[in-house]
């Protein structure tokens, strides 16, 4: 295990809520401050720690995907560009909901319970009552609080945060952050479907073709990652590699070296593209040090993509806004026609349809046309797009995609966009096909 890996493991063992510094890690692990700094940044990207201006870096609990829409108080500080006045040791805690304190104290406190975040202005007594109830406090308008409230916050490990923004701006910022988290939650990544290391079959660099044959007979699988004694991926070996090879032949001599790998945060869409493009059936999943942590199969990736398409979405991305508003207005398979009305979200600063939205409209038209002829999806290889005339906000347009050519693995599409019978956009699209 490298020093970097040892530091990450050390950070993982630290108590939740504890403060971490570069100097502390460097001293504890006998490494340079530069090495310690890089390891802390890696831990931050893994969701193990959070860095807050004027506070420092604290150990936080890594959130599971089902709880991703819940924010920690540390995240709230960064969202509202806040200053922590007290209760720093509670920054790692998760808030269950936030309450806007824009009413009389008695009425307000009926809604405040333990684990809440009360958003309120310059009202010292309310700050104190909220803390005694078990809620953290976010003070808006740049106001301070009393020394008694700060002392109580420290005793209860409940943060008191101050921000220069007003109450309703803060509420909108937190809502936006939660909404963004919901969108992230819906995006399926490798971590959601990978076969973990303890259930993964693999071979080591010192073994021979005979070991592959034994593993093949035992598992029925034909593809395996090849690792060294530190579990770092060195290659992939499949049936075609060992065909006609002597049993004593070292795996290292016949394997595919430097194979493509993915990490646990890679999206399933990206993995599907790699697998289709490269003709790969099994991909090793590695950590930041290229150590094997599992594998993903083509079958599981395609199944996950099909399941995702059937799921209801909570947080809408711009692409979902566009595709959900496309309606088919003809039933013919030969030349389906779709309509869509341009909403404000689809426009650029000039009030006309943006390049990204136009691209999405073209691809979605092609995707739906393919599904009318055969089951499956597309991975776009090339798109040539022509903007012939600007399309204004609130304009209704018609999208006419045509399937020019389709084979077992490739398809070509022509897509035209019309406004009041006049062509305003055109695209030629080529794509690889992912069969369902």
What does this structure look like?
The protein has 436 residues and is α+β, with helices and mostly antiparallel strands. It has 4 domains: 57 residues, Arc Repressor Mutant, subunit A, CATH 1.10.10; 122 residues, Udp-n-acetylmuramoylalanyl-d-glutamate--2,6- Diaminopimelate Ligase, Chain: A, domain 1 (3-Layer(aba) Sandwich), CATH 3.40.1390; 116 residues, CBS-domain; 122 residues, Hotdog Thioesterase (Thiol Ester Dehydrase, Chain A, Roll), CATH 3.10.129.10. It is built from 16 helices and 21 strands. A 6-stranded antiparallel sheet has the order 16-17-19-20-21-18. α10 links the parallel β10 and β11.
Question: Which residue ranges are poorly predicted, with pLDDT under 50 across at least 5 consecutive positions?
Answer: none
Hey, roughly how much beta strand do the residues contain?
15-25%
Rg, rounded, reads: 28 Å
Helical coverage, percent range: 25-40%
Tell me what the CATH architecture of the largest domain is. 3-Layer(aba) Sandwich
Q: What can be said about the biggest beta sheet? A: 6 strands, antiparallel
């Amino acid at each position: 295990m490298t020093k970097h890996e040892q530091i990450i493991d050390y950070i993982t063992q630290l108590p939740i809520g504890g403060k971490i510094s570069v100097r502390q890690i460097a001293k504890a692990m006998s490494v340079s401050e530069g090495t310690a700094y890089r390891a802390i940044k890696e831990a931050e990207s893994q969701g193990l720690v959070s860095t807050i201006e004027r506070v420092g870096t604290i150990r936080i609990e890594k959130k599971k995907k089902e709880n991703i829409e819940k924010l920690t108080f540390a995240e709230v500080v960064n969202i509202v560009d806040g200053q922590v006045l007290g209760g720093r040791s509670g920054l790692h805690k998760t808030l269950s909901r936030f309450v806007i304190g824009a009413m009389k104290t008695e009425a307000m406190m009926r809604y405040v319970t333990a684990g809440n975040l009360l958003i309120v202005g310059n009202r010292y007594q309310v700050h104190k009552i909220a803390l005694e109830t078990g809620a953290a406090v976010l003070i808006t308008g740049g106001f301070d609080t009393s020394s008694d409230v700060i002392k109580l916050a420290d005793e209860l490990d409940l943060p008191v945060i101050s921000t220069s923004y007003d109450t309703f701006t803060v509420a909108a910022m937190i809502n936006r952050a939660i909404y963004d988290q919901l969108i992230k939650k819906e995006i399926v990544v490798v971590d959601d479907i990978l076969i973990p290391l303890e259930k993964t079959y693999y071979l080591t660099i010192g073994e021979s073709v005979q070991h592959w044959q034994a593993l093949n007979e035992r598992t029925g699988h034909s593809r395996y990652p090849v690792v060294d004694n530190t579990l770092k991926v060195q290659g992939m070996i499949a049936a075609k590699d060992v065909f006609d090879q002597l049993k004593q032949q070292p795996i290292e001599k016949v394997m595919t070296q430097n194979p493509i790998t993915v990490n646990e945060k890679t999206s399933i869409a990206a993995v599907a593209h790699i697998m289709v493009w490269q003709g790969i059936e099994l991909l090793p999943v590695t950590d930041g040090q290229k150590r094997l942590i599992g594998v993903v199969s083509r079958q599981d990736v395609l199944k996950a993509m099909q399941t995702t398409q059937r799921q209801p979405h909570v947080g809408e991305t711009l692409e979902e806004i566009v595709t959900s508003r496309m309606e088919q207005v003809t039933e013919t398979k030969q030349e389906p026609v779709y309509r869509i009305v341009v909403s404000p979200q689809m426009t650029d600063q000039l009030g006309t349809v943006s390049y990204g939205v136009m691209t999405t409209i073209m691809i979605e038209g092609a995707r739906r046309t393919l599904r009318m002829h055969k089951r499956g999806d597309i991975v776009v290889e090339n798109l040539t797009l022509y903007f012939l005339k600007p399309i204004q906000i609130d304009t209704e347009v018609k999208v006419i995609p045509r399937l020019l050519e389709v084979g077992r693995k490739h398809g070509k599409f022509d897509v035209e966009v019309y406004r009041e019978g006049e062509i305003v956009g055109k695209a030629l699209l080529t794509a690889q096909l992912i069969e369902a």
